[in-house]
Amino acid sequence: MAQRRLTYIQAVNEALRQEMRRDPSIILMGEDIAGGAGREEQGIVDAWGGPFGVTKGLIQEFGAERVRDTPISEMGFIGAAVGAAMTGLRPVVELIFSDFLGVALDQIMNQAAKMRYLLAGEVKVPLVIRTTFGASLTGSQYLGGGTGPQHSQALYAPLVHIPGLKCIAPSNAYHAKGLYAAAIRDDNPVVIFDHKLLYPQHVPVPEEAYTLPIGRAEVRREGRDVTLVGISRMVDVCLEAASALAQEGIQAEVIDLLSLSPLDEEAVLGSLARTKRLVIVDESYPRCSVAGDIAALAADKGFDFLDAPVKTVTSPHAHIPYSSALEELYLPNAARVVAVVKEVMGKE
């Protein structure tokens, strides 16, 4: 029998639905996540499900008390979600784009992240903030692509910097369903970063509910010559580069980071011990980045393993352009990864 395949969107929707059936304390909040709440008398119950349709259909099963449209006031509704999490509910709140983190940063950084610490662990904060990131590329079915510097940034690094927050970045539908369920069941605030370009991709996904451990990376391809570490969509870029390198006799091991905080240092260092070379691929800006953090980890704890300098392949330290041609040049791709691997292998 062929395995059931779901898109990333379908997998997240299923995870939310299964978790809400399991636990009545779970609520959803966000801008237009129902797109019809309060207009039932007009026959409008579920018009949108958010800009990407992730929550479509949930209000019809769980009602407007548990699936709540909010005003366009990110600081307000994320603050409300923090309070709800502290008083017995398990909110899943949608911040449409990670670019909008600045609007609600005080609630995330100074409230959600610190409450358990400030109250000596006596209060749980089971809050999930789900958001999107990444350039859309012109021609994408989402937003038409080319969304420019205010809707395309990969802004996980600022939140990874903050203690008290768990940050995860699933790389496909299978990981998304399992990590979403784990995040919802966690008693700490978890921020989930979905890459927009992963939404239409589909892979086999089990029908039953399951969780995947937060804080654990995964080896997606084994190799002996170089380690490629990827984040979210960049894992696909690493896998494409590894396939191209294999044609030239270079065996690349691909690590899917999955969890940005906590970071699976053991997985990265264990792979480095086997391959002796490390290239990190990160769509985010290069300065103060997750890629830079992993490079520092390798230099500090894996220096004796290294046969070549650690390299990173990132976007430039510049704003993301609207132009489709410039956007293609801006983003890391497999060709750039292949070129950097050949450099560290001494095969330029």
Q: What are the defining features of this structure?
A:
five-stranded mixed β-sheet; alpha/beta; Rossmann fold; 2 domains; single chain; seven-stranded mixed β-sheet; 348 residues; globular
Tell me what the structure shows.
The protein has 348 residues and is of the alpha/beta class. It has 2 domains: 5-204, Thiamin diphosphate (ThDP)-binding fold, Pyr/PP domains (Rossmann fold), CATH 3.40.50; 218-344, Rossmann fold (3-Layer(aba) Sandwich). Helix content is 34%, strand content 18%. The protein contains 12 helices and 14 strands. The protein has helices at residues 8-22, 58-62, 74-86, 105-112, 115-118, 157-160, 173-185, 233-246, 265-275, 290-301, 324-330, 334-344, and strands spanning 5-7, 26-30, 67-69, 90-97, 128-133, 166-168, 190-195, 202-204, 218-221, 226-230, 252-256, 259-261, 278-282, 311-314. The strands form 3 sheets. Strands 3-2-4-5-7-6-12 form a 7-stranded mixed sheet, with helices on both faces. The longest helix is centred in the first third of the chain and has 15 residues, at 8-22. It is globular and about 70 Å long. The chain starts with a strand and ends with a helix. The relative contact order is 0.12. Residues 139-144 have low confidence and may be disordered.
